[in-house]
Amino acid sequence: MAKQNVAEQFVDILARAGVKRMYGVVGDSLNPVVDAIRRNPAIDWVHVRHEETAAFAAGAEAQVTGALAACAGSCGPGNLHLINGLYDAHRSMAPVLALASHIPSSEIGLGYFQETHPELLFQECSHYNEMISNPEQMPRLLQTAIQHAIGRGGVSVVSMPGDIASKPAPEKSIEHALVTARPTVRPGDDEIDKLCRLVDEARRVTLFCGSGTAGAHAEVMEFAEKIKSPVGHALRGKEWIQYDNPYDVGMSGLLGYGAAYEATNECDLLVLLGTDFPYNAFLPDDVKIVQVDVRPEHLGRRSKLDLAVWGDVRETLRCLTPRVKPKSDRKFLDRMLKKHANALEGVVKAYTRKVDKHVPIHPEYVASVLDEMADEDAVFTVDTGMNNVWAARYLTPNGKRRVIGSFSHGSMANALPQAIGAQFTDLNRQVVAMSGDGGFSMLMGDFLTLVQHDLPVKVVLFNNSSLGMVELEMLVAGLPSYGTTNMNPDFAAIARAAGAYGVRVEKPRQLQGALKDAFKHKGPALVDVVTDPNALSIPPKISADMVTGFALSASKIVLDGGVGRMLQMARSNLRNVPRP
Fold first, then answer.
1. What is the pLDDT of residues 226-247, one digit of tens each?
2. What is the pLDDT of residues 331-350, one digit of tens each?
């Protein structure tokens, strides 16, 4: 049997760790690894047009599957392009292994062609970042990198010169069983007892949930029922906690809606569950706060805590709920449910009158129709900016759908690349990219990746010919909009020229038929919807720093606009409020 080289051993270990594919762009120092993938039936190479797309795709795959995903870039500029997508994956706690191929080892430090220093470049967006400078470091270094990515949730970067990749692997290398799943973390009994006392002593308790409540829906609902607590959520918690939730009071933050802000500020005890919600101006400073999080570095960095609990949300509640005393007083919960329903009733009217006739098309109408027509288990990827607003307000979670975006890093151009990674996990599952014209055009070259791999991603393009969120920032800051206008082509015609299905929608009555035909199409499709750039209704009380850079102001009023099927959910929850 022929002796393995380092590249072959590298690929074998990735496959053993569960990696199904590696996203990237081939080239020079990376070629030995790509050739090893070509000869290994357990792993595929996914050719993309830009390495930033490779990193975004790997991050999305990891978020959909929960398993390790991988991407790669060749030396210098190639791996440098990975950095934005890796920042996003790292801040989303997506386990990703990135291979940063390097210049010849003998030339490092001598200003060689395309020389960079990956071990410095990726330091801030990784848990582990090391270079293989000697074959004897394999496979221990790669195994360590894998365990960091999976165990801590985030990115590991391995740099490797091309000449090292081509050398023979060590004969007596140490290989061990790999960590491929994270454990649950249970708080100590003392912390559970302290938390139990705080809950029992409080008359009004509010739960505020983030992405850390994934897999804990039943436990959160049981706890909320026992203590009669309203349940609010951050944007990343929406998909995990809003569905089948009779205690739902909406979302807080700049894009929020409903009574979440009131519920978090009018309680006696606020319990933050699995959330690293960054906008501390929306959090109270005059009530007791408890935070439960599996990552101890998150505890207390947004607000002053009365108790910090290091633990997995599900395991913590499984320990806590049997110990707390049941509460019978529903006055606070019922008042928040009524406020929530009234708030949604008040904003929904802005975009319910003649929206099916309005030209240019209201983006809210597009999002609402999309929500109704998409599959019950669809994966939505959402561009940063105004599409975050439409996703937050109109996409209805149900426990099977996924909503993925650059919600922590806030990058443009994430939706299309993330759709690529999401679609590769299951070619039969509907994946919809909610793209803005600014984000889509930034990495538009990777629409060709959909065509090349025949990925049935459906791109719904909200085309308002502007950088809408930036215009809003300027408007609120009292500045005239400048540099925000996009002179766009007919994106549907570009899609057709590339070999995909493409249709342009300029009138509301065309929308449903266009979406239906695109969803029926077996390959990639793009629906270019011309939307109204002036669709947002701005509340009368809004301060300049509220929107700029997604900063917050002293005012806690959020952007006005419709809320889709959430109004029906709120009305339904009111049935739980006892009648006098």
1. 999 999 999 999 999 999 999 9
2. 999 999 999 998 887 665 45
Instruction: Give pLDDT tens digits for 496-545.
Output: 999 999 999 999 999 999 999 999 999 999 999 999 887 754 433 344 44
- Is pLDDT at 2 greater than 70 in this prediction? no
pLDDT tens digit sequence for 196-221: 999 999 999 999 999 999 999 999 99
Q: How confident is the model at residue 555 (pLDDT cuts 50, 70, 90)?
A: very low
At 320 the three-state DSSP class reads helix
Q: By C-alpha distance, which of 12, 29, 26, 24 is closest to 166?
A: 29
Question: CB-based contacts of 550: which residues, under 8 Å, 6+ apart?
Answer: 254, 279, 410
410 conformational bin, left if phi > 0, alpha if psi -120 to 50, beta if neither: left
Give me the sign of the Cα torsion angle 223, 229, 230, 234: negative
Give the closest residue to 542 by CA, choosing from 524, 526, 554, 525.
Answer: 554
- Least Cα distance to 239 among 256, 224, 217, 257 occurs for 217
Beta bridge partners of 250: 258
Across the range 379-396, mean pLDDT stands at 92
Strands in 307-310's sheet, in edge-to-edge order, are 257-258, 248-251, 231-233, 205-209, 269-273, 288-293, 307-310
Task: Report the candidate in 364, 368, 356 with the shortest Cα–Cα distance to residue 508.
Answer: 356
Type of residue found at 86:
L
Q: Is 240 exposed, middle or buried (0-12, 13-18, 19+ CB in 10 A)?
A: buried
Which residues on adjacent β-strands are paired with residue 46? 23
Burial 160-183 (b: 16+ CB within 10 A, else e): bbbbbbbbebbeebeeeebbeeee
Q: Side chain identity at 518, as an amino acid letter?
A: A
Q: Which two tokens stand for residue 142?
A: 């790669």
Two structure tokens written together for 419: 């759709």
Supply the DSSP symbol for 324.
S
Q: Where do we find the tokens 């906008």?
A: 279
User: Is 295 within 8 Å of 211 (Cβ atoms)?
Assistant: no
Q: What is the DSSP string of 78-96?
A: HHHTTHHHHHHHHHTT--E
C-alpha torsion sign, points 73, 75, 81, 82:
positive
CA 98 to chain centroid, in Å, comes to 19
